[in-house]
Records
---
Amino acid sequence: MSLSRRDFLKLCGGTAAGISFSQMLVPEVVEALEKAAAGKPPVLWLQGAGCSGCSVSLLNTAHPKIADVLLKIIDLRYHPTIMAAAGELALGAIEETSAAKGKFIIALEGGIPVGADGRYCVIGEKEGKEITIMSALLEAAPKAMAVLAIGTCAAYGGIQAAKPNPTQAVGAQEFFKMKGIKTPVINIPGCPAHPDWIVGTIAHVLLYGIPKLDDLGRPTLFYGSCVHDHCPYRGFYDDETFCKDFNDKEGCRYQLGCKGPDAYCDAWKRGWNGGVNWCVRSATCIACVEPNFWDTESPFYSNE
Ligand code: SF4
Ligand code: SF4
């Protein structure tokens, strides 16, 4: 089947009839993707400085299941957490894949520490020489078709970039600017990034090319709405009815530190873990999709 971009956007955005908390990548999208994926570019998933939480988030993808993503939709050549190969054999996959200039995609998870010539993040060793995330990117990124910066670490440096940023961690766009690398970067922030945001962006790239991005390099499809403007508790905010503690069933969480007014993402309609819950229902928004949220939005449980 062929799926129009318009229908794809409706399905991914959860605006198709009958979908409220979006069931991302419903069977129609999966089928179109399987066809589109045949002969499509291989993916190198590189991990820099981070906690691997975005890999765990991807492994939680519900529609489609992770086995379908890995076996039918993308041609994943390197992923340090889930690949069977190790050592130089594994690193060889980066070299082999990146030999095909302009024909592969890099999915970057984690920040890039540039201090100490990159030695704060060594990803392997070849012929007795340390390979850092910095050196791996310097080698492979200029040849990639595009880089997906997955999670707030890859997009903006991550928690390790919090002041005083002792390892000098930066995100992909900043790193590319420093090194004069021209490869396009798509930011998919979040701490972690939602699996739908990851798979949906990969799907868009495979089916229709690079999606429309906002001025922070994020697909507007997933990051185009302010959490506060759509929050189910917004009426309480407007009426100035605020929760005093987390046990309060009713009221806006602003006085508990909610940063929804600063955050742009669609968690308010998409939900997490298959749509069973979302950040503000049980806690508060910490604006985890925004640059430098670790410095600019903390303390997380206060808005005073
Ligand atoms: S709970 Fe947060 S996002 Fe929701 S209305 Fe209140 S401040 Fe805004
Ligand atoms: S609602 Fe807030 S905490 Fe939840 S994913 Fe969006 S920015 Fe992050």
Note: Residues 16-23 have pLDDT under 50 and may be disordered.
---
Amino acid sequence: MKIKILLLLLVPVLLFPDHLKVMKVIIDAGHGGYDGGAVSDYGIREKDVTLEMALLLKKHIEGATEPPITAILTRSEDKFVPLIERVGLANKSEGDLFISLHMNASPTKRDSGFEVYFYDSTGDAETAAVAKRENEQDGSVENKDRNNPLFILWDLAQNEFSKESSGASDIIQSALDGALNRNADTTLKLRDRGVKQANFLVLNGMKMPSVLLEMGFLTNKNDEEKFKKQEFKERYAATIADAVREIRQKFDKKSAAGR
Ligand SMILES: [Zn+2]
């Protein structure tokens, strides 16, 4: 009798090994330490918002998810972490999904809303400008990273995952569109600027589906006001966590179909 039960328990393991795999999400809080990133008129720094949102996202991803999802942070305190180290940590951890969190900035204070990015070596002039700002951690790191032997080894690793990264971007964008952009509650409403592609250095070497989220504009007064409110930030992080669960379902279906 006991053997029968044991066999029954083993059937799902043998038939669906991937479903029992603990999904690993790498959450990357952009900037940190002396690299403050964008700054709002009122002195709110991008590095502080990204860290706070990364910690919230970890909480929402790991809370009440069955089967569990593990969230690994590239930084959990206010310190400088070079892009190359973020890529290294994610690849070494063999993550299933990488999410980099950033805040946008624009000379036009009218620009507002969120943008979801996946890697592309080209992109248009507007997305190239966003990538340039994010790639220059202290104005010189980009070149140092580019010449790092590890980076050369990892260069273009992301191309293999462009379809999955594009699919993951769509799911995150659609979840945020529903929870924020289409929300009648003006305290939660945030404009949806869609899914875009750009040459982000931190995504280029990733050996896993990867997205970069520009969560909102620190240079826009309405966006900035929202990121001061706890309820808004909790809702934002919970929505990304929901999207991560949906992404896992999609990945599971794909791996099941591949068998
Ligand atoms: Zn940034």
Note: The two ends are 31 Å apart (CA to CA).
